[in-house]
Automatic annotation (TrEMBL), chain A:
Catalytic activity: S-(hydroxymethyl)glutathione + NAD(+) = S-formylglutathione + NADH + H(+); S-(hydroxymethyl)glutathione + NADP(+) = S-formylglutathione + NADPH + H(+); a secondary alcohol + NAD(+) = a ketone + NADH + H(+); a primary alcohol + NAD(+) = an aldehyde + NADH + H(+)
Keywords recorded for this protein, A-Z: Metal-binding, NAD, Oxidoreductase, Zinc
Entry keyword Secreted: no
Family: Belongs to the zinc-containing alcohol dehydrogenase family. Class-III subfamily.
GO MF, any single term: S-(hydroxymethyl)glutathione dehydrogenase [NAD(P)+] activity
UniProt cross-references to InterPro entries, sorted A to Z: ADH-like_C, ADH-like_N, ADH_3, ADH_Zn_CS, ER, GroES-like_sf, NAD(P)-bd_dom_sf
Gene Ontology cellular component terms for the protein in this record: cytosol
Species whose genome carries this gene: Eleginops maclovinus (Patagonian blennie)
Pfam family, one: ADH_N
Protein name: S-(hydroxymethyl)glutathione dehydrogenase
Gene3D superfamilies named in the record: Medium-chain alcohol dehydrogenases, catalytic domain, NAD(P)-binding Rossmann-like Domain
From TrEMBL, chain B:
Organism: Eleginops maclovinus (Patagonian blennie)
Protein name as catalogued: Enoyl reductase (ER) domain-containing protein
Keyword Cell cycle tagged: no
Domain Enoyl reductase (ER): 17-372
A GO BP annotation: formaldehyde catabolic process
Protein family (similarity comment): Belongs to the zinc-containing alcohol dehydrogenase family.
InterPro entries reported for this sequence: ADH-like_C, ADH-like_N, ADH_Zn_CS, ER, GroES-like_sf, NAD(P)-bd_dom_sf
Reported cofactor(s): Zn(2+)
A single GO cellular-component term on record: cytosol
One annotated GO molecular function: S-(hydroxymethyl)glutathione dehydrogenase [NAD(P)+] activity
Pfam families: ADH_N, ADH_zinc_N
The entry's keywords: Metal-binding, NAD, Oxidoreductase, Zinc
Amino acid sequence: MATEGKVIRCRAAVAWEAGKPLVMEEVEVAPPKSGEVRLKIAATGICHTDSYTLSGSDPEGVFPVVLGHEGAGIVESIGEGVTKFQKGDTVIPLYIPQCGKSLFHFMGCSTFSEYTVVAEISLAKVDHMAPLDKVCLLGCGITTGYGAAVNTAKVEAGSTCAVFGLGALGLAAIMGCQAAGAARIIGVDLNPDKFKTAQEFGATEVVNPKDHSRPIQEVLVEMTDGGVDYSFECVGNVAIMRAALEACHKGWGTSVIIGVAAAGQEISTRPFQLVTGRTWKGTAFGGYKSVESVPKLVEEYMKKKLKVDEFVTHTLPFEKITEGFDLMHAGKCIRVVLQF
Amino acid sequence: MATAGKVIKCKAAVAWEPNKPLVMEDIEVSPPEANMVRIKIVATGVCHTDLYHLYEGMGEDDFPAVLGHEGAGIVESVGPGVTEFQPGDKVIPLIIPQCKECRFCKSPKTNQCEKGWDGGDDVNALAVSRLTCKGKKVLQFMGTSTFSEYTVVNQMAVAKIDPAAPLDKVCLLGCGITTGYGAAVNTAKVEPGSTCAAFGLGAVGLAAVMGCKAAGAKRIIAVDINPEKFEKAKVFGATDFVNPKDHSKPISQVLSEMTDGGVDFSLECVGNVGVMCSALESCVKGWGVSVIVGWTDLHDVAARPLQLIAGRTWKGSLFGGFKSKDGVPQMVKAYLDKKVKVDEFITHNMTLDQVNDAIELMKQGKCIRTVLSVSQQ
């Protein structure tokens, strides 16, 4: 492309400071250095974690920043020494790299931009026939929730599961529980508008904590003759994380924390809960090794074994990003996909 | 035996109220009813959980009680329907039963039989005691009451052991050693070549060290604020020794630096919620597993959720994850085969009437295990 080796000027939604709306700006994107890849973003989802960082609740969040970490695009040019990618490859940036070394990075994709540069180890090459305005969602929410059930909890066939929070993450967890053969999947949310979709994804029952005066964990323990085998926290609220653990069955129940809580907050419980046999775990990116797994998930989608389209409730042009955030904050979407 | 079918009057150390010394009393022990076994206790250990009940838990409804739950003895008589045991059998009473019928007993994932003392359908419930003193019912602690010359226990909470086993040693397999060893081997499932840390070097911590070694751990870091405990930890297989008081940095940071990111397995053997959090944070991200072994129910335990999201797993363990009736005889056999140490835990020998001295020793951290001789064999 004519842009190779040169600085690219393009649009990006910049977060100048915490708590303020994003501003559409013209940015300069430098050519990729050694080990880096520059890509043109075709589509991006908006994930609640973007909103979390924008709010200033993330202690690792620095400003100004270009957020967005759930995207898909095409390679525009590669830096020195890059052998795994070439111009024109269809790719998904990864917020957890897979470099073979024990490093740990946080985000660093910046998909709210027409062009971005990522490290080669933070990029997955996917089927060029995959529709980018759908598979971008495999860059975070769906993979995270699905993997939490299938990899981290390792849900067993015939088991009983509970999923707290029925946004994209929770729906993906439900999908994972169903794929693993769970016999009962209980969807829990304060917003009854979420229940229909949850049932379409495989929830066998739904519960609204507002309909009960007792704590939700007590309600679930009673519904399930002692508690669930697996529970998933897909909200990012420490009180719900506690409830999710305590809703688990004595002796073998396992609770997985997926949602991201605000800085400084702590989970807590009686040690008795763990001593009597419950296990508390957490997961990032669904426990998937990113580079090798994301392409396989794209394949699963292409073979219609994994739902993705059903998560997309709104498609908007990139310029309307703020409207996308508003929809999410109002609880009126599952996933908004922005197209470039 | 001549006592069969009759009430037995015998000596026991009774805890009349919390936070007071135990009192040697004459008590009455009823004959065993259906499915029960009356046991002459020959020897008992003193475990910190006995002290916890007396000094920390101090539940109003939990007194008067005969404490002690780490004992061994001989069957004196059995109730109707008991075919598994007969007078003269050497046995260890069990702090959790194994009914073999409930879904917990049937599940390979847990040892927590629902007939247990923690609030299920409880055949050994504190409320259902066979001991009386001065006309009052005296509760049986954890369904056992080994600070007594005789006790009555449901057969699903009694393990028959090898007649060659010395009761004044294997009594310790009734709690502490089995609890710590099993936490490493069954609950954490320590892997060969791994790096482990045991927080707290009392009997449970030392047993956890022993379990880590048996499981093939390459490095076992023993952590305690009392440096006098390190020597014995070495005997059990600890390779490194850390006193948090020697460092201004948090202990999790010290351990993380020593181990290139954290340990693979950590075991909390103190019963302190701050140490439980430190033990979790001392684990490596990605795969570290922390097991809570020590007992407390006074405070919540807390941690930042990021610790778990980064890949650490938090678990807990009761009685070493051993299905009790199956596991205790196995541990006795392992001891007789010299695969599991027991003698090395014993630092003091006394008689039952010296129980308050034994408790005092433990309060001051000056013992590992005191074995009390309760009756003649």
